[in-house]
Predict the 3D structure of the following.
Amino acid sequence: MELKTKSLARSIWVFHFAAASCNNCDIEILDALTPKFDLERFGILLVGSIRHADVMLVTGAMSHKGAVRLKRLYEQASKPCLVIAVGCCACSMCIFQDSYNKAGPVDRFVPVNAYIPGCPPKPEAIIMGVVRLIKALKKA
Amino acid sequence: MIKILFDFIVFPGFLFTAFVGLLVSWIDRKVTARVQWRVGPPILQPLYDFVKLLGKETIVPQGGSKLTFLLSPLLGLTAVTIVSTILWLVMISPGKTFLGDLIVVIYLLTIPSISIILGGFASGNPLASLGASREMKMILAYELPFILAIFTPVIQAHGVIRLGDLLQYQWAKGISLGSWSGFIAFIVAIICMQAKLALVPFDIPEAETEIIAGPYIEYSGAPLAVYKLTRWMMLFVVPVFLVLTFMGGIIFEGWHILWGISKYVLLLVLIILMHNTNPRVRIDQAIKFFWGPMTILAVMAVIFAFLGI
């Protein structure tokens, strides 16, 4: 069990789910993966298939149709799979909370392990969120 | 009996090949990172990835064939292990060769690709079957020039098909790479090796940006770990095969060991440079390339070898 958590904390493969966001958070996530910040130092890689993922990054204000897909993707992931909500929209809906075509924040549909607020959050903030998540993993 | 088991499981078989494979894949990632002006992952990174994947849940897709889906990764792993055992036993003592082991090795090197095809089709995912069909086309494309290129040193050594005899001929009469026919065949073999390892520019079957991960898309947990390990071991075994057939292998006495290892490192550097400086080609371009220029070059090499140039 110890070995399992330790290797999970050192090799996090990220799946990126963009749910109707304005793309700013997505751009900042890509920024965090560029050579300047170099997340591969910590074993963090971007993968294309949810079956390979350890962490699902969700950005954007969830629409009604997106919510169904989000739930299905979470069920398809091989557990343990953690969820990080990136940006204010994903965390709390922000200015979209009274919107008629939005379904609600991410934690209404899937369990969220870390919230990274900001509009958009800086790459440093995203990295800090991931680091805190890793620390929480190691404690648990 | 115990000696044979030891050969297959510990040295030069599974454990040794897996260990070096992990190391080599780290070198690949680290050099790629340095080329892109990054720091790169720590040395134990492939091991962390492997252990993590072993600890994760394995999901079998509903529409897939369960038995084939779970067994096909092991098929590739076994084939690579046997190839590595044959190659290293022959290099350590050339007397341990048997008739036709060159042909056995060529056959076994195709099996990892076949296991990827089987696994891709068994998963029942449309993108996976697209990737598997591309892998099939790639095998048809690169096998012909690859086998022709491998036959060039065999013709130079007057038709021996034992790896041990091939090695001893090269130790006595000079390596195959030293002649013009050997040089041409070596270039063809390097490019076919890139396709065999499914690296850029020939990573068409698993093109991450268009068909996600191709045949691997439905794999998770331990089977995915086995596939990854097979790929890392291939990165070690296929260049060693070329070192053996074209460059006179590794001689196990004194300083010759270092010289032999540097031959392998040279091939590894070539592979890494190629996959860092090239874009991915389309499948039709790849087939045209292998059946056109590469096959012509390989046939030229064979004719030169018959003429003794």
Notes: The first helix of chain B runs from residue 2 to 9.
